[in-house]
Amino acid sequence: MTSFARQQWYVAAYGREVGRDLLARTVLGEPLALYRTEAGEAVALADRCVHRRFPLTESRLEGDTVVCGYHGFTYDPTGACVFVPGQSRIPRTARVVSYPVVEQDSFVWVWIGDQGRADPALVPRAPWLNDPAYTTVSGMEPLAARTGLLVDNLMDLSHETYLHGGYIGTPDVAGTPVTTEVDDEAGVVYVSRHMDDAECPPFYSESTGLQGRITRWQDIEYHSPCLYLLHSRVAPVGVLPPEDGPDDQAFHVEVVYAITPSTEHSTYDFWAVARDFALGDEPVSEFLRESNRTVVLQDVKALDVLEQVVASEPEGYQELSINIDTGGLAARRILSRQAQDGAAPATTVPAAAEPVRAAP
Amino acid sequence: MLPGATVVRIEWLPGTDLLRGTCHCSAQHEAQDPVAMWEWLLAHPDGHTAGPGATAPGDGPRGHLATASA
After folding, report:
1. N or C end: fewer C-beta atoms under 10 angstroms in chain A?
2. What are residue A135's phi and psi, to 5 degrees?
3. Which of A157, A176, A181, A325 to mutate to test the interface with B (most CBs of B within 10 A)?
């Protein structure tokens, strides 16, 4: 049994990554073949031919169908096999899983759990990523570490002071208390850190032009398990949002992470930075892209090391939690509860189309 | 505090190491350890004395005396 929360939506790719070439991704341990139909619809099929398990991503598209590169078994976007070589009868079990897909806010979301529960309305939103009032840079870094380590990392931003000094970290981050709120029913954790008089890190001074000390707000909104939003507001010291009207004397950055378990010990770390200033300014975009990628890679390096340590230790190893971990503990509990929900994988292939058993 | 029947809140009191928890039933508790604080919040209604605006069905007759400590 895995620890994955299966009955949830996960980001498998950016929409821009999915096209007329077959893209391989593994989500919750399930290998996927992603592509786009000629009409532009994103499709996610199980990446194993039902015949001899050849990866469909090593195959080719023909119109909207995937032709297996080994023996030519051909699948349509629903996963139904429409051609087998050398015979006219197509076995009724010749089918691969076609996973529910939602394309929204620049992401391609997939549902690996029970297909009857795949409600598109449950996909959490990150509207800034497609909003013309924002300019966005984004990327994805694979992590050789379990997802929980990335969630711990993102829920406690005091690590910015130590791991990301010179980019986004200053002493004020670790030195400022946080307020944590949890909406248990919705599965959302909020962690708020408002710094009234803080040093401005290069990430913000160079992108906004702000000089001197700043008011810096970090408001985390974690929609467990996959979507993490950091609403970041920076402004000169003392400049607070007006009671009425737009908050136009401040700079707003929406930092978005999609946290997708690939296997038990690897994770896709999708990151995006959307800003409401210097719109379309390519040098600013390039600076923020490189800065955030550097920060993400600092996390990747640390978490890859941590995974090796944690994986080598017996279950129930000793930890110590302090005040900065309040939000992370809440996230862990919600993740654990979500993993209990429908943990046993239901049969995702319809009963009439069970996989072919290997011949003895 | 956010609206919602299941929303709880933990404030780290500025200038101290103390955490103050507020349950959705409006009971409050202070502690220095986030693990202990979550245990108290999740124990609702045990050890929670409802304050004004309490809405949780577990409050009232089944509630215990407050055990909050400063």
Report:
1. C
2. -110, 130
3. A181
